[in-house]
Specification:
six-stranded mixed β-sheet; about 700 residues; nine-stranded mixed β-sheet; binds adenosine-5'-diphosphate; binds magnesium ion
Length: about 700
């Protein structure tokens, strides 16, 4: 048997692709679908029926038994409720398989159990899912069988968004309208639509599943709440890009196949900086689809890991003192005529259209820095942002030498006469080729970096949905484009006006440009001097959603209403409190039922042995010294547990969501840190055979 993987054959095998639509649909119906995908609007009822039947026929041929409206509620993960294709049996007891246009287009899941931030009172818990025709339907295969999944948006009875997809789609529409205006200013009258392209690099950890199941904290919270550092960490830098261990390799091989079948272009794979950490990146594609696909990537990683006796950790900071995981959001803007608006060309100084787009983006990022920061915040990401491994919590833009120089020329003289070139890189070995150098080096420490022909937003947390950050980028760029187009469309002398506008924007907003080391302490001071916001945590950032500028922008471009924003703020506070509460309870549980009993057992054994040793005429000094230290730490642990329990009671008495979240952040988090200290110290002293759960060494180095 050959073990050749037929990528071409299996790619998209489980997706109802355009090609399959062409094959299964009558020509006129296919044309209708194509029109709605490209231009918007609605499919007629008759066409919808035909599409539904074709989709069902295809899915049933492939062995599907159920369909589901697949959606993305505010939990940040996906939701699905399966319906089988069967209908009421006929008189002879035969069932038929059916799927109607109505079922394809609209679903009515009971919405009362999803977070809504008070948008939809439970008594009117109607929610609707609506087919997103722009993201292809696919079949998911797992132990449940094969399920036809229809990507959908999720809204309330009154049309308010209850999910992550609806605002994203609204933002893409707004961005397209405004970006078309910019393209037209430069004579590109054929441009009708502009889409954002998104490529999401996904970091993750893999640990042994048996060991994972021995740790309550990993099971309940996705991260370790206790754990002393292993003797070895990542100090040798020997893991990054290192050879991939066999078990991980076979996981990656399976993962790729599963993803390819789902039409996800899994492209790169490598070991990341921390031990047991890895990364996967697909090829970029249309934003909405890329974000749906990222959800599938995360879900598939977990599933495939299980098959290999592994557990995939997507938490942003599964291990203290070891690098955490992020998700890099590569973002660019492409017209329906194939032009990348972020491509500077060889001589960016002459590319006025590019410079206008760049100036607008710099302005947008500076004006809405808090919103961007907010969009990438998540409970887990608080452990990462601002630590010396991830971008700081301060938003800044990296442009690189070439563009920085162009901006400098524009700001100081009003004109950019030249662009720096990359030149040749000489290897110094006659048999090695000299390499053409990029005009710009990389900077890995910037939260928002220009990387050649795209921006890379590096703040996202690994487990978080990428919908929010992209909604935010789309919205703020749409606003900046709109303001520029409003001015430039009216200008008598376009060349002069565009020149002035670029200079004005860059001059006013260049404070957000920073090409230095974003991890350094001096940058924090420098950023403060420049007046750049530095929002430390997720809860500090929530309010920015409700600022006057934010509400004005989101309402103007019909992305969020004020009440939708208020509901989202409420959901975020709530999510924060609940997540930290679960973590705190888990810590208490592990301390009381595992750590304290283990230490008692060990100290009891030492005490017994000490007596025996002394009775036999030996010295018990080591025993008693150790005993003293252990029991001291044991008392400390007990005190900290009691303090945490007491504060948890107070926290749960607080009613207002915001006040509660702040209490969790300021008090409970601090209590948790304090409890961890003596417990981790104990771990380093207690007999390994008695310690109740696997250590960092066991988890990180034994995969
Ligand atoms: P690196 O780690 O050097 O940033 P990767 O190959 O891991 O590079 O990831 C780069 C990501 O950026 C990939 O998902 C890639 O498809 C994506 N990408 C490349 N060009 C663009 C573009 N023009 N727009 C959006 N994403 C892009
Ligand atoms: Mg990468």
């Amino acid at each position: 048997m050959s073990d050749r993987i037929d990528i071409e054959g299996l790619f998209g095998e489980n997706v109802f692709t355009i090609r399959k639509m062409k094959e299964y649909l009558p020509k006129n119906v296919y044309k209708d679908v194509e029109k709605v995908i490209n231009e918007g609007g609605e499919l007629s009822k008759t066409s919808a029926d035909v599409v539904a039947k074709a989709m069902k026929d295809w899915a049933v041929e492939k062995g599907a038994t159920h369909f589901t409206h697949w959606f993305q509620p505010l939990t940040g993960i996906t939701a699905e409720k399966h319906d089988s294709f069967i209908t009421v049996p006929d008189e002879e007891g035969r069932v038929l398989l059916e799927f109607s246009g109505k079922e394809l287009i609209k679903g009515e899941p009971d919405a009362s159990s999803f977070p809504s931030g008070g948008l939809r009172a439970t008594f009117e818990a109607r929610g609707y899912t609506a087919w997103d025709i722009t993201s292809p339907a696919f079949i998911k295969e797992d132990a449940t069988g094969k399920i036809l999944c229809i990507p959908t948006a999720f809204c309330s009875y009154t049309g308010e968004a209850l999910d992550k997809k609806t605002p994203l789609l609204r933002s893409e529409q707004a961005l397209s309208e405004q970006a078309v205006r910019i393209a037209r200013l430069f004579g590109h009258d054929d441009v009708k639509k502009v889409t954002c392209s998104v490529g999401l690099e996904q970091e993750y950890f893999l640990v042994d599943r048996k060991k994972y199941l021995e740790r309550e904290d990993l099971i309940f919270t996705g991260r370790t709440l206790y754990g002393a550092a292993a003797p070895k960490g990542q100090e040798l830098d020997d893991h990054y890009f290192g050879a991939i261990p066999e078990r991980v390799g076979s996981f990656m091989k399976d993962l790729n196949v599963e993803l390819w079948k789902l039409g996800v272009t899994a492209k790169t794979q490598h070991n990341e900086a921390a031990p047991a950490q890895h990364e996967l990146a697909p090829i970029f594609e249309n934003g909405n689809i890329a974000i749906d696909h990222n959800q599938l990537v995360m879900e598939t990683m977990k599933k495939v890991a299980e098959r290999h006796g592994l557990a995939c950790l997507l938490h942003e900071k599964p291990f203290a003192g070891v690098n955490g995981s992020g998700k890099h959001d590569n973002w660019s803007l492409v017209t329906d005529t194939g032009m990348n608006l972020l491509d500077p060309g060889q001589t960016p100084n002459e590319n006025i259209q590019f410079l206008l787009v760049l100036a607008c983006m710099i302005k947008a990022i500076d004006v809405h820095a808090c919103l961007l920061r907010q969009s990438a915040s998540d409970v887990g990401n608080d452990h990462r942002l601002g630590a010396a491994e991830a971008p700081p919590a301060i938003i800044s833009v990296f442009l690189g030498d070439q563009l920085d120089d162009v901006v400098e020329q524009l700001v100081s003289t009003g004109e950019a006469r030249k662009s720096k070139r990359g030149g040749k890189l000489r290897t110094g070995v006659s048999t090695l080729p000299d390499l053409e150098k990029d005009a710009t080096d990389r900077n890995r420490t910037s939260p928002f970096a220009f990387t050649g022909n795209k921006f890379e937003f590096r703040m996202l947390g690994s487990s978080d949905s990428a919908a929010e950050p992209n909604t935010t980028i789309n919205a703020i760029v749409a606003e900046a484009f709109c303001e520029a187009a409003d001015r430039l469309e009216k200008a008598d002398d376009f060349d002069m006006a565009v020149h002035d506008l670029i200079k004005e924007y860059l001059t006013e907003h260049k404070r957000v440009i920073f090409n230095g080391n974003g991890y350094s302490q001096s940058w924090v001071k420098e950023a403060e001097r420049r007046g750049l916001p530095n929002l430390q945590t997720m809860v500090d950032a929530v309010d920015s959603l409700l600022s006057r500028d934010s509400v004005k922008m989101y309402e103007k471009f019909k992305i969020f209403t004020k009440s939708e924003l208020e509901s989202r703020a409420e959901v975020l506070y709530d999510k924060y409190s609940k997540t930290v509460c679960i973590e705190a309870r888990t810590m208490v549980d592990m301390a009381k039922k595992q750590i304290i009993p283990a230490v008692m057992k060990y100290t009891g054994e030492i005490a017994d042995k000490a007596l025996l040793v002394e009775k036999a005429g030996g010295r018990g000094d080591v025993h008693s010294g150790l005993l003293k230290e252990l029991t001291m730490l044991l008392c400390e642990t007990q005190d900290k547990v009691e303090k945490l329990e007491k504060d948890l009671e107070t926290a749960n008495g607080i009613k207002a969501a915001k006040e509660k979240a702040f209490f969790y952040k300021d008090n409970i988090m601090a209590d948790m840190e304090a409890l961890r200290v003596p417990a981790d110290k104990l771990e380093t002293m207690v007999d390994k055979n008695i310690w109740p759960f696997p250590t960092y060494g066991d988890l990180l180095f034994e995969v």
